[in-house]
Amino acid sequence: MRFIRQAVGVLRAGGVIVYPTDSCYALGCHIGDKEALERIRAIREADRHHHFTLVCRDLSEVARYAHVDNWQYRLLRANTPGPYTFLLKATKETPRRLKHERRGTIGLRVPDHPVTALLLAELGEPIMSSTLHLPGDELPLTDAREIADRLEHRVDLVLDGGNCGLVPTTVVDLSGDHAIVTREGRGDSRPFAVA
User: Fold this and answer.
1) Which domains can be identified in the chain, with CATH numbers?
2) Per-residue pLDDT at 194 exceeds 70
């Protein structure tokens, strides 16, 4: 818990952390911190169209930042926590810089990883997040020591959760009138198939 509290302190102070999830390691910052968000963008060499994800504790947090209809809620409830990123229409509570510029959507996920769960419980709010996949690398980094060495002066803290794997989340677009899998990843895409 000492390391979890330390990571939360870094997030609240405007820092950038690396933390484990149920798919890959991720870069994270406080939801309201524009400067930290720009630091993550620079690490990923991502443009302003890059889709960030809000990593949430549970579905009540998801409902605060996204419009969720009954059919969407049933899919979310059946598949969270888990290795999925869901694209949903953002609410007014969602900061504008986090929404997709044209579509008004936000990526949300509820990971199934004990370290992430502790981190989110201690923080008490979602983490603004992006998969740790460095430009030029074929695969995401899986070793915390290597991550710390490569990002030594670019992040403020690395939480070592062991090897999380190399496969990113399955991305499911729920912003229309039915589910569309836009990226096959670690999560099983069969529950979202249209009959």
Assistant:
1) 2-192 (3.90.870.10)
2) no
